[in-house]
Design a protein that fits this description.
The structure is a single chain. The chain is α/β, with parallel strands linked by helices and 423 residues long. It folds into three domains: 126 residues, no CATH class; 76 residues, AF0625-like (Rossmann fold, 3-Layer(aba) Sandwich); 192 residues, no CATH class. Helices cover 49% and strands 9% of the residues. It contains 14 helices and eight strands. It has a four-stranded parallel β-sheet. Helix 3 packs antiparallel against helix 4. The chain is flat.
Length: 423
């Protein structure tokens, strides 16, 4: 038997069961065992036992959240660890606060830190070196997969399951006319518990984009995203904006004053853009550019690389994404969401619609302050770049869910800290 036909045994450190069991032990037990010797209290008092159970439940929720988020594209496991852990431990803290059960803050904090440290140590030691290897059934549209980086593609030459033993999964084009022996091969693979992907869904998962050959249904087989989450998301957006308003208003006042001192003109920039269902909305931003005369509407609506209209202060406001802060007004008006496709200027939307098929479909959800395209691609203006951006927007609509929003939220924080993608 050739070497490439032998399925390599994965390291114990990357196995899910080992990671989960280790997280339970590391995240829950140390802060409980240290009760008495180093931490105040005893192991058998109610606060200590509740904290032990709370840390264990937080690990379980975080593990489930991580598995849910990791089904999405282009996601390094390192970027999922902290959001998942914060979700799990945050839910437990909220539950304790609401129920007023006795618990220990130090014990919960220690459990969270140890849980996160354990997962990052595993990632650094083993997971970041893991590269997926996927067997390819050589029929139909599978040839385009080789253009996707980050995966070792293993084209199969015969319909023998043992030839795919070294692979993590198998991919095939189910719409292609497969010979009988390859149909039997895929059936045998499924019976054996092997993961078998459809080529289109795998390509979307790895690239984070939906190809724009035609309108693409979402994960429930409909053109409309999940309506239940759509309305729940609107309520959460509004409530979160109300909670932030007392903190945001003083910051907005300080930024407005700085803008007026830095350059002449108003502090706020208002622009007509296209919102949910194609309705026009007025979007508010902090002004970051000087007004230039004799510029056509389309050019004035676009921001180019190293645009000389950007002010000194405007450069930093854009880099830190603070210029988007006034859009909290749009959220309170139920016109925008915290996360969603960016609202396009009306003049640009008309242009893009004439150039790109199905462009208006991106208006099926509320526009957002940050989105899947922004954390993957950054700012764009040219039509060919907009086509790629639209693929990201369609992906967001197709896989519209709270888990994708959580991922975008944390990746947005990363882009704010690094200034990536700003112009």
């Amino acid at each position: 038997m050739r070497h490439d036909q032998v399925r390599e045994t994965p390291s114990l450190l990357v196995r899910r069961r080992f990671q989960f069991a280790g997280a339970l032990v590391v995240g829950a037990l140390p802060s409980w065992f240290l009760r008495g010797p180093l931490l105040p209290g005893t192991m058998i008092e109610a606060a200590s036992l509740n904290t032990l159970v709370g840390n264990a439940v937080a690990v379980i929720i975080a593990f489930w959240t991580r598995l849910s988020i990791e089904t999405y594209p282009g996601i390094r496991r390192s970027s999922v660890i902290l959001p998942a852990a914060l979700t799990g431990h945050g839910i437990v803290v909220v539950w304790f606060v609401l129920t007023r059960f006795p618990y220990d803050r130090v014990g919960l904090a220690a459990g969270f830190l140890l849980h996160v440290a354990w997962l990052y140590i595993l990632y650094i030691r083993a997971e970041r070196r893991v590269r997926r290897r996927i067997a390819v059934v050589p029929f139909g549209a599978t040839d385009r997969l080789v253009e996707i980086e980050g995966v070792d593609w293993h084209p199969l030459k015969r319909a023998q399951l043992r030839d795919a033993r070294s692979c993590n999964a198998i991919v095939a084009d189910f719409s292609a006319e497969l010979p009988d022996e390859w149909e039997a091969f895929l059936a045998d693979a499924a019976i054996a518990g092997r993961i078998v992907y459809q080529v289109k869904q795998l390509a979307e998962s790895l690239t984070g984009r939906v190809e724009l050959e035609h309108l693409s249904e979402n994960s429930f087989g409909s053109l409309l995203p999940a309506r239940g989450y759509f309305y729940l998301k609107g309520l959460v957006d509004f409530a979160f904006a109300l909670l932030l308003l007392p903190v945001v208003l003083p910051l907005m006042a300080a930024v407005s004053l700085a803008i007026r001192l830095d350059s002449s003109g108003p502090a706020l920039f208002r622009q007509k853009r296209v919102g949910h269902a194609g309705r026009p909305i007025i979007v508010y931003k902090f002004r970051t550019m000087r007004r230039v005369e004799d510029v056509d509407d389309r050019t004035s609506a676009m921001t180019l690389d190293n645009d000389d209209r950007i002010t000194r202060l405007g450069h930093w406001l854009r880099k830190l994404r603070i210029d988007e802060l006034p859009q909290i007004i749009n959220i309170l008006n139920w016109e925008m969401s915290w996360i969603g496709p960016r609202p396009e200027a009306e003049v640009l939307s008309v242009w893009y619609t004439s150039e790109i098929p199905f462009y208006r479909y991106r208006h099926v959800v509320k526009p957002g302050i940050s989105g899947w395209a922004q954390v993957n691609q950054g700012h764009v203006a040219e039509v060919n770049e907009v086509h790629r951006k639209l693929q990201y927007d369609f992906y967001y609509i197709k896989y519209f869910s709270p888990w994708l929003d959580v991922l975008i939220f944390f990746r947005t924080i990363k882009t704010m800290l690094t200034g990536w993608g700003a112009r």
